[in-house]
Design brief:
Number of strands: 3
Strand content: 15-25%
Number of helices: 4
Structural class: alpha+beta
Largest sheet: 3 strands, mixed
Radius of gyration: 22 Å
Order of helices and strands: EHHEEHH
C-alpha cells in the first residue's frame, strides 16, 4: 500500500495513477479525509443512485405486469439465458 498526501498526489499524479494499476494508493487530506485510488476496468459498471432506483422500480413494475422470463422445468441456465436473449 502506498500512502501519499494530497499535495504529493497533485504534484505527481502520473506516478500515482501508474502505481494504482498494481498497488493500493491511499491519498490523505486533512480537510477532506482519506481516499483510495482505484482503476476502473472495462467491465465495471458505473450507475448513480437515481438511475439504480429507476431501474429497480421498472423491474418491479415489469414483474407485477407479468413481463418476466421463467425457466422451464429441466432447462439449464445456459438454455434459459439463450432463450431470453433470442426472445428480446
Amino acid at each position: 500500500m502506498v500512502v501519499v498526501s494530497s499535495r504529493e498526489f497533485r504534484a505527481n499524479q502520473r506516478k500515482y495513477f501508474g502505481l494504482a494499476q498494481t498497488n493500493d494508493v491511499v491519498i490523505t487530506s486533512r480537510s477532506f479525509g482519506n481516499y483510495r485510488l482505484v482503476p476502473l476496468k472495462e467491465d465495471d459498471m458505473l450507475i448513480d443512485e437515481k438511475m439504480l432506483d429507476a431501474k429497480i422500480k421498472q423491474g418491479i413494475e415489469d414483474y407485477e405486469a407479468g413481463r418476466v422470463h421463467r425457466m422451464k422445468d429441466g432447462e439449464s441456465v445456459q438454455e434459459f439465458l439463450g432463450r431470453m436473449i433470442s426472445e428480446d
